[in-house]
Design a protein that fits this description.
alpha/beta; Rossmann fold; 3 domains; ten-stranded mixed β-sheet; six-stranded mixed β-sheet; 21 strands; about 25% strand
């Protein structure tokens, strides 16, 4: 039995992998500075939790697990390096947890979490009991991690640091390719290249599933050294490809009806990817479509957190301009009143790179307030979120997220949708909004 020590155990990716290793019978512990992070319930699963980072937290026989966000100056990482202990990336630990299983890697700029959740939920519903690692909680389960009894492992595969190349992928999915993570990828070409590498490391007998509506994903499919399946609204139902129509999906000789339970037209594409993966694993399209008809969604993906005074409060993880625009458009489709947005940009590098695009996306809301940047692992770069609002037609910059939440809630009227939007601490403003309404 191996002891694993996770630095930053409360991170959404770290705690998922920790839970999986613990479920496999390994000794797992870890630390985090933030007691309010994803630490709830870990002790019940046999995981030892330390609040705060200190060298004495690290057993000298432990394998130390880090994410890209962990600094070399972290005292726990420093002592592990000094002792010569084995230090591995979270993705390597996930690969260990999935050893011996048929690995499904779900990659892409947008829609990874929802698509991974759909695949995992659908396969579980038809009885395959897959293991899964999802960046958000699968609604109704309270977790994004599960070690199943089946031989399939479904994982959200992270392109941000290239770590999705560490998996022994049997089926790879690419939902779309649009440059993000400018701290690592300086050009569109660099960003697309990592997906070519992803396709190249799929097992020779494996399959690549891509959205044929996306130009970059199509280019990757054209050069991939493995079998490929395309899905999309512009894709003809020929061979193994899947056409996405209005409320139905069709292939060569088959058609199934499905209207996703989660709002947003992009979920039709995610459903098609799930059907393609399931078919490769021996599940008929009609059976998978029936399973997906009850898909409950994943946490922080257009998650309705409450309705008060006639105002619907939604929390969403969107942190790229395309995701921001899609979330607002989804709310616009179903809101009887206005769409109000509290947006917290994540990372200084992303904010300055896409400031104009964020401004354009936020201007599609009826009202938008932008609070200060969630810097995460990045040091301040000498600017604020005002570089977004100064490019907006009617945006407002309120630095403190608590003040911003109260102000936006005070403007809401019955029938409105109010969205807390971003991948950082803005999610903690939902109770503030509900209390103010």
């Amino acid at each position: 039995m191996t002891t694993y020590h996770f630095i930053g155990l409360g991170g959404s990716g770290q705690n998922v992998v920790a839970r999986l290793l613990a479920a496999r019978g390994e000794t797992v512990q870890g630390s985090d500075n933030d007691p309010a992070s994803h630490l709830h319930g870990l002790a019940d699963e046999g995981i030892t939790v330390h609040i705060g980072h200190a060298a004495e937290n690290v057993p000298d026989d432990a394998v130390v697990v880090i994410s890209t966000a962990i600094s070399e100056a972290n005292p726990e990482l420093a002592i592990a390096r000094k002792r010569g202990q084995r230090v591995i990336h979270r993705s390597e630990a996930l690969a260990l947890a999935a050893q011996g299983m048929e690995f499904v890697s779900v990659a892409g700029s947008h829609g990874k979490t929802s698509t991974t959740g759909m695949i995992a939920y659908g396969l579980a519903t038809v009885g395959l009991d897959p293991s899964y690692a999802i960046g958000g909680e699968l609604s109704g389960t309270g977790t994004g991690a599960h070690l199943g009894k089946g031989n399939v492992f479904v994982a959200e595969a992270d392109e941000s640091d290239g770590s999705f190349l560490n998996y022994d992928t049997r089926i790879g999915v690419i939902t779309n390719i649009e440059r993000d993570h400018p701290q690592k990828y300086k050009t569109d070409e660099q960003f697309e290249e990592i997906f070519h590498e992803f396709a190249a490391q799929i097992r020779p007998e494996g399959l690549l599933v891509v959205c044929g509506d996306d130009e970059g994903a199509r280019r990757v499919a054209q050069k991939a050294p493995v079998r490929t399946v395309q899905y999309g609204r512009t894709v003809a139902p020929e061979g193994l490809n899947i056409h996405v129509g209005e409320g139905e999906f069709s292939g060569d000789g088959w058609t199934v009806a499905l209207r996703p339970t989660t709002p947003g037209s992009h979920h039709e594409l995610n459903s098609a990817a799930a059907i393609a993966v399931a078919r490769e694993l021996g599940v008929a399209p009609a059976e998978m479509a029936a399973a997906l008809a009850s898909y409950p969604g994943t946490g922080r993906r257009f998650e309705v957190r409450g309705v008060k005074s006639g105002v619907t409060v939604v929390d969403d993880y969107g942190h790229h301009p395309t995701e921001v625009a899609a979330t607002i458009a989804t709310a616009r489709e179903i809101a009887e009143g206005r769409v109000l947005v509290l947006f917290q940009p994540a990372l200084f590098t992303r904010t300055i790179e896409f400031a104009a695009e964020f401004a354009a996306a936020l201007d599609t809301a009826d009202e938008a307030i932008v609070c200060d940047i969630y810097g995460s692992r990045e040091a301040p770069m000498g600017f604020t979120s005002e570089i977004i609002t100064e490019k907006m037609a009617a945006g407002e910059y309120i630095p403190d997220r608590f003040d911003a939440a109260r102000e936006l809630a005070s403007r809401a009227r019955p029938g409105d949708y109010l969205i807390t939007l971003g991948s950082g601490s803005v999610t903690e403003m939902v109770p503030v909004v509900l209390d103010t309404l």
